[in-house]
């Protein structure tokens, strides 16, 4: 086994013995500037030298795995390599040190960049207008569903239902519910939308249908035009979840497929680093007839000067303060500029090629439900593992020992023991082959090794039930627990 | 673009003649033919083009800025960038596999710990998008805790947050009702608050220091007026270095923005929403929580927990749709706080108050200006009311290469000719001099 993650003993910062620095103490009321009753008594934050803080976090970083460490085939998350120049650009003073409420004449470069990015995203998605305000993909969905609601209300309709295929990302139903919609799950047929079932589900109560295409199985929904027709004939809208946009750039577009609203995940398709969970950005694109509902302000260009238009009476309002996650937008802009139109198409081609290659090499070792040709990702079933008393989870944990991040597992829900693999275009054939070798080797291993995995990571399997039971979410809570005599947590 | 040799081999393995065959499942009537975007460019060319484009911006580093209103210009120690630039952190996804992601998980636990300490709340989650969306989610959570289709919200919050809260409330059919402020102190108008309470009210939101600068002093009265309704308090966490924390003021939910801890302004995003609550409400809370546990060898370890609240498990019944959050900025906040420490943080907070006092008295000494407008304690922001119109002053300052504060006239028409100024430890005496002399020249 070639991979060994670093294992450091890194105590919590709060456990460090605090060095009192009396010379730095001062009267917290600042000589009466603040009244006593408004001033806090204590603050349990350690004073540490910079040297120790850097050591602490660098050692912690070595106990973390990013795309820069190796293959990260997390299905639906599009973990591609992120060009470093993008990170550097966002640290420039002219990018980092501008305030969102500055006079528009002093942020012309930023406004221009955002305006141009809107245009680029329109081209990729085949949409007419884009807002950059939403902070993440789920937030984009939330924005999109608000637009759905505003659209129907403007037509004097109160439709109360959003339909989703059962392969949908969990954020879809959650976003629809947060805007007050009832959610109707539509069972799939052969891994795709059951068109007949959809027909009988759609009614005058249907506000929208949310769809990912290719779907989360990596299958292209061939009946998408017919689906769009069914929805549109019923007066409903069709929403495109852009999580899988990396599969289709330049080959088709949500606009061409007759979708009305699209969200983008810039941290997936457009290579902005995901930061261990965020930030991302979730711009939303719409057709002309929905543009008036987009959040304010809109960036307007006139004779090379950019200004902000708040006068949009039908706008849904604001979903986030200011302009959204600007520093993420800048990275995505830089990425698109570097790749150019042909580069983006090539990214899609290679993502789909890598996915199909990997699928072809692995499908006989597992099960591949639902047809053969896939787009950017594919879902295997780990069902054959069961005969050895193993589960997909054990296989995933063992992959960590080989230095590969695990795929997404147990999603989508319609595949038993699902293993969802998305290699992306930035991985070489050599890496893919090594991954295949690892998968095949694992399947031949003594099942006990899989049960025991991982062993080469900073920690072995965790007692997750204990975490839920103890509910220790902070040093403060941990101290309380110790004080209450429950012993070491 | 021509395919590489490796790609051709992979095609052969798939028994395909061309890449086009991989896209055969896309029906002809929905196909597009490439993208109408310019050709790509190299790194050097990209940098040149972006440098030129961005030179049209006037950053706070080249022109003193007195803007705050939710986004603040604070000093960021170099080591923060060193830490958050570590590839293992910045290029990781959400820590779904805890065994290989302990670095980020422990860092997030430490972020939660810092925030819990500053706010004196039992639980703070590992981040929301920003303060405005954290407030939106807090309104929804207050409704889950207390029922009621009305939520009271102080008038002294930023127009941006108010707009966002409205959208979140509308989605859940909750009506927002505004509570006014005292014209002298700028603090919550208690009589107005009491008159608006009733059975259908889920809770109340106020900020301290509030949007107009005053530190609220009547929190005991507010807490008792609310009885068992949900009290949501908005904070500037930097001010909590000195101020009594909301956990000691009876807050049920605390929201705020930790951008002040190690994240640059970047046109207002990304920032990081703080969201904390009392432990009895934790299952109604949105967002990811990192909990402490052990691995099978008994070693301390950290993982995401109480995930049954979240969208990937509960789908339409989840407490929120949030998935991606602001983890890297939580790491920035944790490293910032570790680097400055308790003493450093208190000194920075003190410097902010001192700068506010010094700048406001210098402005008050200028003929035709009143500062601070409200008779209360302040942190680092205050309202200036002038005889001249705010727009006129704004234009004059721009001509003198100074970023004016935030003009209040539009969102607060009752405060005619008023501007919200912020000053932080970043301002030197020369910066203050520049503003003061520019204001003196307004006449």
Q: For the record, what is the CATH homologous superfamily label of the largest domain in chain B?
A: Type I PLP-dependent aspartate aminotransferase-like (Major domain)
**Derived structural class of chain A:** alpha/beta
The CATH class of the largest domain in chain B: Alpha Beta
| Proper CATH architecture of the largest domain in chain B | 3-Layer(aba) Sandwich
Determine the strand fraction of chain B and express it as a percent band.
Answer: 5-15%
- β-strand amount of chain A: 5-15%
Number of distinct beta strands of chain A: 14
Under the CATH scheme, the architecture of the domain at 85-338 in chain A is 3-Layer(aba) Sandwich
CATH fold-level topology of the domain at 85-338 in chain A? Aspartate Aminotransferase, domain 2
**Structural category of chain B:** alpha/beta
Lateral strand order in the biggest sheet of chain B: 1-7-6-5-4-2-3
Biggest chain pair interface: A-B, 187 and 190 residues
Spatial strand sequence of the major β-sheet of chain A: 1-9-8-7-6-2-3
Report the CATH topology name of the largest domain in chain B.
Answer: Aspartate Aminotransferase, domain 2
Form type of chain A:
globular
């Amino acid at each position: 086994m070639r991979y060994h993650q670093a294992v450091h003993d890194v105590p919590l910062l709060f456990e460090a013995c605090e060095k009192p620095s009396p010379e730095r103490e001062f009267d917290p009321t600042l000589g009466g500037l603040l009244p006593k009753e408004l001033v806090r008594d204590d603050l349990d934050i350690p004073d540490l030298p910079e040297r120790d803080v850097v050591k602490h976090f660098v050692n912690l970083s070595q106990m973390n795995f990013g795309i820069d460490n190796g293959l990260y085939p997390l299905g639906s998350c599009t973990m591609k390599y992120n060009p470093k120049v993008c990170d550097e650009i966002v640290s420039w003073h002219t990018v980092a040190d501008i305030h969102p409420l500055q006079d528009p004449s002093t942020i012309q470069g930023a406004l221009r960049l955002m305006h141009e990015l809107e245009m680029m995203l329109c081209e990729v998605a085949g949409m007419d207008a884009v807002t950059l305000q939403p902070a993440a993909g789920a937030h984009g969905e939330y924005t999109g569903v608000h637009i759905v609601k505003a659209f129907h209300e403007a037509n004097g309709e109160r439709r109360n239902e959003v339909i989703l295929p059962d392969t949908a990302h969990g954020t879809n139903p959650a976003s629809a519910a947060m805007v007050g919609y009832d959610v109707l799950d539509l069972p799939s047929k052969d891994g795709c939308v059951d068109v007949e079932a959809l027909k009988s589900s759609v009614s005058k109560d249907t506000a929208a249908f949310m769809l990912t295409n290719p779907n989360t199985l990596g299958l292209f929904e061939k009946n998408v035009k017919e689906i769009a027709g069914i929805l549109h004939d019923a007066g409903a809208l069709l929403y495109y979840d852009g999580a899988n946009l990396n599969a289709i750039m330049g080959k088709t577009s949500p606009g061409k497929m007759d979708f009305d609203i699209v969200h983008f995940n810039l941290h997936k398709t457009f290579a902005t680093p995901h930061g261990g969970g965020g930030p991302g950005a979730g711009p939303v694109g719409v057709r002309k007839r929905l543009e008036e509902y987009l959040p304010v302000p809109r960036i307007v260009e006139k004779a090379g000067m950019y200004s902000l238009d708040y006068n949009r009476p039908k706008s849904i309002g604001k979903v986030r303060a200011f302009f959204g996650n600007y520093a993420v937008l800048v990275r995505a802009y830089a990425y698109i500029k570097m790749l150019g139109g042909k580069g983006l198409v090539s990214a899609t081609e290679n993502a789909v090629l890598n996915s199909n290659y990997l699928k072809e090499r692995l499908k006989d070792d597992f099960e591949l439900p639902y047809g053969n040709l896939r787009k950017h990702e594919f879902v295997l079933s780990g069902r054959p593992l069961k005969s050895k008393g193993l589960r997909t989870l054990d296989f995933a944990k063992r992959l960590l020992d080989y230095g590969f991040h695990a795929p997404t597992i147990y999603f989508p829900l319609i595949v038993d023991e699902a293993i969802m693999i998305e290699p992306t275009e930035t991985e070489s054939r050599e890496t893919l082959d090594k991954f295949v070798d690892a998968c095949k080797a694992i399947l031949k291993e003594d099942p006990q090794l899989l049960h025991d995995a991982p062993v080469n990571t900073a920690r072995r399997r965790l007692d997750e039930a204990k975490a839920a039971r103890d509910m220790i979410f902070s040093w403060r809570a941990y101290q309380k627990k110790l004080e209450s005599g429950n012993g070491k947590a | 673009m021509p395919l590489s040799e490796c790609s051709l081999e992979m095609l052969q393995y798939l028994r395909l003649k061309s890449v086009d065959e991989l896209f055969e499942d896309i029906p002809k009537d929905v196909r597009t033919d490439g993208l109408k975007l310019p050709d790509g460019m190299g790194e050097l060319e990209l940098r040149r083009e972006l440098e030129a484009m961005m030179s049209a911006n006037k950053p706070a580093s080249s022109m003193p800025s007195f803007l705050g209103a939710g986004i603040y210009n604070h000093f960021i120690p170099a080591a923060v960038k060193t830490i958050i630039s570590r590839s293992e952190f910045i290029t990781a996804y959400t820590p779904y596999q805890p065994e290989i992601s302990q670095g980020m998980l422990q860092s997030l636990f430490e972020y939660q710990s810092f925030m819990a300490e500053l706010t004196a709340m039992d639980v703070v989650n590992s981040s929301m998008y920003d303060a405005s969306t954290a407030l939106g989610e807090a309104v929804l959570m207050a409704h889950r805790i207390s029922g009621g289709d009305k939520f009271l919200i102080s008038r002294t919050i930023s127009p941006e947050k108010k707009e966002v809260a409205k959208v979140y409330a509308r989605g859940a059919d909750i009506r927002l009702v505004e509570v006014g402020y005292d014209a002298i102190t700028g603090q919550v108008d208690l009589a107005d608050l009491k008159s608006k309470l009733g059975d259908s009210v889920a809770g109340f939101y106020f900020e301290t220091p509030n949007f107009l600068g005053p530190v609220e002093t009547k929190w005991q009265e507010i807490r008792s007026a609310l009885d068992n309704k949900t009290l949501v308090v908005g904070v500037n966490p930097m001010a909590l270095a000195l101020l009594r924390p909301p956990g000691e003021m009876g807050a049920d939910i605390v929201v705020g923005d930790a951008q002040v801890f190690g994240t640059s302004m970047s046109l207002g995003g990304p920032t990081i929403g703080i969201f904390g609550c009392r432990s009895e409400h934790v299952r109604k809370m949105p967002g990811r929580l990192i909990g402490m546990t052990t691995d099978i060898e008994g070693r301390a370890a950290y993982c995401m927990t109480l995930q049954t609240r979240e969208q990937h498990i509960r789908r339409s019944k989840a407490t929120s749709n949030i998935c991606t959050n602001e983890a890297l900025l939580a790491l920035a906040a944790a490293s910032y706080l570790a680097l400055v420490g308790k003493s450093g943080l208190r000194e920075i907070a003190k410097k902010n108050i001192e700068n506010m006092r010094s700048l406001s008295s210098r402005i008050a000494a200028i003929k035709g200006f009143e500062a601070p407008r409200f008779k209360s304690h302040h942190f680092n922001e205050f309202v200036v009311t002038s005889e001249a119109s705010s727009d006129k002053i704004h234009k004059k300052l721009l001509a003198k290469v100074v970023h004016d504060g935030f003009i209040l006239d539009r969102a607060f028409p009752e405060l005619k000719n008023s501007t919200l100024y912020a000053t932080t430890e970043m301002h030197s005496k020369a910066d203050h001099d520049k503003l003061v002399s520019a204001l003196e020249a307004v006449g």
